[in-house]
Structures are given as structure tokens and as C-alpha cells.
Amino acid sequence: MNHHTLKQRHRTLREGYPANLNLRVHRALSWLKRAEMAAAEGDDDGRFIFLWIAFNAAYASEIDERCRLSEQATFMGFLERLCALDTGKRIDNLVWQEFAGGIRVLLDTPFVFQSFWDFQAGKLGEDEWLARFAKGKKIAQQALAGGRTPALLGVVFNRLYTLRNQLIHGGATWNSKINRKQLRDCGQLLSKLVPVILDLMLDYPEVDWGPACYPVLDAA
User: For residue 127, with 0-12 CB atoms within 10 Å meaning exposed, 13-18 middle and 19 or more buried, which class applies?
Assistant: First the structure.
């Protein structure tokens, strides 16, 4: 499943679909297309960034400031909803079959764990960051043993979010040699997961996906 197939599907379905859903999917597909171009160019950094923007376009909503959730809590709620709707177990199949080995490697990598960097900056002691690292791996191992996809995705996306921050906030060099493996592994996971997410959203137009951020306004 790629941009082309999803774009064709959206064109056949969008008539009568809620405007907010159409806007989310349209925006996400534009960034998915750019991510595929980056992959063809061998740009691992660009592919990951564009895939994250596509994911962001799919889930993000305007939230009342008085009850604003953290970004991670927001996208975790979105993923939990998708897993509940995913009767065909497409997300499960990706997590448990195609990417189980890669996820285990990711969970053993401290460079995509925020507490490791907090320790490097002197914000945490060594014992504390190691304890948090072990706790995250334990949660993931329990999720793996119990087949609990949302719980496992929670730990995985915590790591992806750290990688996202490194890139978006200028904490990494473009095309650096020191972070290639995690970028390629994380980019590969998102390249398969984002299309499934968009396909599931198209399956459920009756679900209230919430208002899209920065709606399109008339020029007048």
C-alpha cells in the first residue's frame, strides 16, 4: 500500500465524506508522497520527517487550552482508537510479524530514549535513567508476551518521538553516519504504518476524528 493506491481510493470515496476527514487524509497523503520521494532519493532523514508530518496530519486536532493533552498522550489515544477499530488486525500483523525483531532492537537502543539524553545533560542520575530504560523494556516485553498492541506501540512511539525531536529541533546532522540504523528502522516502520492508518481512517468515515488543525479558509 502506497501513496498512489491510497490517493486513488480516497478519490473514489471522498464524495460525501466529512470535510475534516477529507482534509486530514489529503494533507497526510501529500506528505506520504514526499516521503516516498525522499526514500527513492536515499534521504533517510527526509523520509522520517515527512512520514512523521503525515502521521501528524492524520491525528492532530485543535484542543481547548484548558484541557490540552501532551502531544504524546494525544497521538497515543489516536493509536488506541485505531487498534480498537482494526478488526482486520493489520496493525497487529505489522507489529507482531513484520517488525517484531526491529522493535526489539529499537528498545535496546539508548540513543532514542529521552532519559538517556537527560542523563547526558545532567538532568538525571545514571541510576535513574537506567531504571527508566529497564522499566520501558519491561513494559514492552510484557506487551509482547501478552499481544497487547497499543501498549507496545506506546513504548515504540516514545522512542520515535525522541528521534523526531532530534531531527526537528536540529539535534542531529543531515545524513550523519552515527544514527543511520535507527533512522532506517524507524522510517521503515512508519512507511508501513502510516498507509495502514490512513486506510483505516477511510474505512470509518462515521468516526469523529476531530477538527483538523489550521483549517482551510476562504481567501475573502
Answer: exposed
- What does the block give as the cell for 39? 526514500
- Enclosing domain of residue 51: 3-203
Place of cell 466529512: 18
How far is residue 216's CA from residue 3's CA, in Å, rounded to a whole number? 22
219 is a domain residue: no
Residue 199 makes CB contacts below 8 A (sequence gap 6+) with 1, 6, 9, 90
Q: Is the pTM of this model over 0.90?
A: yes
Residue 95 lies in a domain: yes
Is residue 136 a part of any domain in this protein?
Answer: yes
For the residues 117-141, what does the mean pLDDT come to?
Answer: 93
pLDDT at 219: 54
In angstroms, the Cα distances linking 43 to 4, 34, 39, 49, 187 are 20, 11, 6, 10, 10
Q: How many domains does the chain have?
A: 1
